[in-house]
């Protein structure tokens, strides 16, 4: 059935299938990038949960440190971390509930965390109120009873459970991100190779079909020239047969004229199509290069997303290390504060030891403050890395859109492409020139026939000229046939 298709229908079919491949590749790439963006958002969500849990524990430690400082010195300035924790804790707990709304298990743990936080704040407030009322000994007894330490230990353990579950979820989401990126790369590369192979096959098939049709046209020209040569030979055989030969020659020349005009018109149209095809081929080559650049952009953006995600993981590890230092320093501060209190209560006038212990407490407090600043700096870096990741993902989506548009241009340009356009154009031009020469020769034969009809004396000269013209036309037809066959091979 395909053998009966016209050249235009074959081109339309080939490039329609190519366009279908390109659209499928674009849809698959768009879907993969959409999934990648959604997964990156989930990773950011998990990082926020980890950040808020760490901030909650840090605030409680700051509140406890402020309480111990106030109990030891009676200076209200030490209560600033305590007041800040009391004011900021509701917002942190509320945000944790919103972030974990899709996880019933985490919601239950956050409820337990809230209860522990309230108990710890109540314990801290009791000791502060006793110190304000001048009952420092009673406040110290509450501290030494270990009630506050029990709450803090439970709070740390529960926070670690929440963080551990979120880190496990983070690892799963990072694995999903890697898998989605790999699928996107495979789909784009495999689809592009398949589309290119189909376009090449379609081009070869169309070129062979066009060559076969040109060969048939040349065969018609050769047949017509052979008939003209036979007629001219009969005319040259003698004047006795001139009357009957004239009728045969006239008929043959008429057929040759019609055939020549048809071939000339067909050759002209084919030449125009070949020139348009050459221009489209050059345009298509440039469009393909731009499409490849767009695909390279997608790969770079995907690599950038992965790099930022790794950077985010490293920053999280650094935060964990700094938090360990803060925990260690807080515990040492507590021990030194208790020792200083015991020494002060048993020394009486010998307050020199208390002064030494107080100096150590001040130094440790300075280290805690410096570590807190480091924590905040690291948290800011994490946020910056998250923002950079989001921006890189958005750039990747734009690169995908640009790639899709470039391949749309490729589909439009390749609707007019055929391989070996330069060779085909030259062959068609030679055919057009030959048919023009054939038409000229036919006009000369017709003139010769008219002269034979008008004057018998010029019959022999006209016959000789007609024979020469027919021989040239036959030779030209043979040259055209050899040209077409050589191109086919």
Gist?
This protein has 489 residues and is an all-alpha fold.
* Element-level helix/strand string: HHHHHHHHH
Rg from alpha-carbon coordinates: 47 Å
What overall form do the CA principal axes indicate? rod-shaped
Largest sheet: none
Annotation, overall tally of beta strands: 0
* Structural class computed from helices and strand pairing: mainly alpha
Mean pLDDT: 75
Helix-residue proportion: over 70%
Proportion of residues in β-strands: under 5%
The end-to-end distance, rounded to whole angstroms, is 25 Å
List unreliable stretches of 5+ residues: none
Topology:
Layout: H1 7-73, H2 80-99, H3 104-132, H4 136-144, H5 147-236, H6 242-347, H7 352-413, H8 421-454, H9 459-488
Helix pairs in contact: 1-2, 1-3, 1-5, 1-6, 1-7, 2-3, 3-4, 3-5, 5-6, 5-8, 5-9, 6-7, 6-8, 8-9
């Amino acid at each position: 059935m395909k053998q009966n298709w016209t050249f235009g229908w074959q081109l339309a079919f080939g490039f329609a299938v190519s366009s279908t491949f390109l659209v499928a590749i674009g849809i698959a790439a768009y879907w993969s990038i959409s999934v990648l963006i959604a997964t990156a958002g989930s990773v950011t969500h998990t990082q926020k949960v980890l950040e808020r849990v760490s901030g909650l524990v840090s605030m409680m430690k700051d509140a406890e440190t402020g309480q111990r400082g106030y109990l030891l010195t009676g200076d209200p300035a030490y209560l600033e971390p305590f007041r800040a924790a009391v004011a900021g804790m509701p917002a942190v707990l509320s945000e944790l509930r919103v972030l974990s709304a899709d996880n019933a298990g985490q919601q239950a743990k956050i409820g337990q965390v809230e209860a522990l936080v309230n108990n710890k704040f109540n314990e801290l407030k009791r000791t502060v109120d006793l110190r304000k009322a001048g009952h420092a000994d009673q406040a110290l007894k509450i501290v030494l009873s270990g009630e506050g330490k029990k709450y803090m230990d439970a709070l740390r353990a529960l926070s670690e459970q929440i963080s551990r579950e979120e880190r496990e979820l983070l690892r799963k989401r990072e694995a999903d991100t890697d898998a989605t990126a790999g699928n996107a790369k495979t789909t784009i590369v495999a689809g592009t190779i398949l589309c290119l192979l189909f376009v090449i096959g379609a081009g070869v098939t169309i070129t062979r079909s066009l060559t076969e049709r040109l060969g048939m046209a040349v065969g018609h020209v050769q047949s017509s020239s052979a008939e003209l040569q036979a007629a001219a030979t009969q005319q040259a055989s003698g004047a006795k047969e001139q009357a009957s030969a004239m009728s045969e020659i006239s008929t043959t020349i008429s057929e040759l004229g019609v055939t020549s005009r048809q071939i000339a018109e067909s050759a002209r149209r084919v030449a125009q199509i070949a020139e348009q095809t050459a221009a489209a081929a050059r345009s298509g080559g440039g469009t393909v290069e731009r499409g490849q650049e767009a695909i390279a952009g997608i790969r770079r953006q995907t690599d950038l997303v992965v790099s930022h995600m790794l950077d985010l993981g490293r920053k999280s590890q650094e935060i964990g290390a700094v938090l360990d230092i803060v925990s260690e320093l807080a515990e040492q501060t507590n021990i030194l504060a208790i020792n200083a209190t015991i020494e002060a209560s048993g020394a009486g006038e010998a307050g020199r030891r208390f002064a030494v212990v107080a100096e150590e407490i001040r130094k440790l407090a300075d280290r805690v403050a410096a570590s807190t600043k480091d924590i905040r700096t690291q948290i800011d870096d994490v946020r910056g890395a998250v923002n950079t990741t989001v921006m890189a993902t958005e750039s990747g989506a734009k690169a995908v859109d640009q790639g899709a548009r470039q391949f749309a241009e490729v589909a439009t340009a390749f609707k007019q492409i055929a391989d070996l356009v330069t060779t085909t154009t030259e062959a068609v031009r030679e055919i057009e020139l030959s048919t023009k020469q054939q038409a000229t020769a036919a006009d000369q034969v017709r003139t010769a026939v008219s002269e034979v009809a008008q004057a018998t004396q010029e019959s022999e000269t006209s016959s000789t000229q007609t024979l020469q013209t027919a021989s040239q036309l036959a030779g030209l037809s043979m040259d055209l046939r050899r040209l077409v066959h050589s191109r086919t091979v």
